């Protein structure tokens, strides 16, 4: 009888430990479930037909244009529609400027900037292997030794700290999967007096024939850039359909 009581006591003890363990596990699970799935300004929604469903500071991130859109980037009408020559003329480039074309695509801007900085360098950065191959082929065909093709990541352009005079994103920023992380990485890659130039189709103008999520307003761009250590340095409206927005680093 005594042995039965001992066994019963041991069973009760193990049962108590088991229940306590399960209780702790359940509490941890509850705590994990209560932790927000969105952080640092990110949230999610039902995706727009042209979007990802990922939202940053109340803006749905647009779907990325694949390498199949390379023909559109190189269309014959692009200069007339966007006045790329005027945009480059207003970048305040010197012969020694070090520039990063982030989201370079086919290199439409890269290979027009390179001759302007003969003693400098242009980093043509992209995340898509098809574009990387195309950029390398064009670089060799043109014999441009001051162009370096870089495979970027979704959260960083993979460039050295304090190496850039100017970073540009031409109709690219609205597609960044991780805008916050990318902006912070660009911030590090810029020299103390380096600048970031964004060209974005104007969301304020409904007549511009570009899909909704592939346009941005100045107020939204400012909100996102201000949240990541940048402030508006120069805004111009001389381009036909795009904002020309230059940002400088703050807190340096």
UniProtKB/TrEMBL annotation:
Domain Methyltransferase type: 101-196
Alphabetized UniProt keyword annotations: Methyltransferase, Signal, Transferase
GO molecular function terms noted in the UniProt entry: methyltransferase activity
Biological process according to GO: methylation
Signal peptide: 1-32
Top-level lineage group: Bacteria
SUPFAM superfamilies: S-adenosyl-L-methionine-dependent methyltransferases
Pfam families registered for this protein in UniProt: Methyltransf_12
Name of the molecule in the record: Class I SAM-dependent methyltransferase
Organism: Pontibacter diazotrophicus
């Amino acid at each position: 009888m005594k042995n039965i009581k001992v066994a019963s006591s041991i069973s009760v003890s193990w049962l108590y430990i088991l229940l306590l363990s399960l209780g702790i596990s359940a509490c941890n699970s509850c705590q994990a479930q209560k932790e927000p799935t969105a952080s640092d300004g990110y949230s999610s929604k039902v995706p727009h037909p042209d979007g990802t469903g990922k939202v940053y500071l109340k803006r749905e991130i647009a779907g990325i244009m694949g390498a199949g859109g390379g023909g559109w980037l190189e269309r014959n009408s692009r200069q007339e529609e966007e006045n790329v020559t005027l945009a480059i003329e207003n970048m305040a480039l010197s012969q020694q400027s070090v520039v990063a074309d982030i989201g370079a695509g086919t290199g439409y801007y890269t290979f027009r900037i390179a001759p302007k900085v003969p003693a400098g360098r242009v980093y043509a950065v992209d995340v898509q292997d098809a574009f990387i191959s195309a950029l390398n082929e064009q670089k060799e065909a043109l014999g441009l030794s001051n162009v370096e093709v870089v495979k970027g990541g979704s959260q960083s352009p993979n460039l050295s700290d304090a190496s850039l005079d100017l970073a540009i994103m031409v109709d690219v920023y609205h597609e960044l999967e991780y805008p916050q992380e990318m902006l912070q990485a660009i911030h590090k890659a810029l020299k103390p007096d380096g600048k970031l130039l964004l060209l974005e189709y104007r969301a304020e103008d409904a007549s511009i024939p570009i899909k909704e999520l592939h346009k941005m307003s100045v107020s939204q761009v400012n909100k996102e850039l201000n949240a990541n250590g940048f402030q508006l340095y120069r805004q111009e409206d001389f381009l036909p359909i795009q904002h020309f927005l230059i940002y400088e680093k703050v807190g340096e």
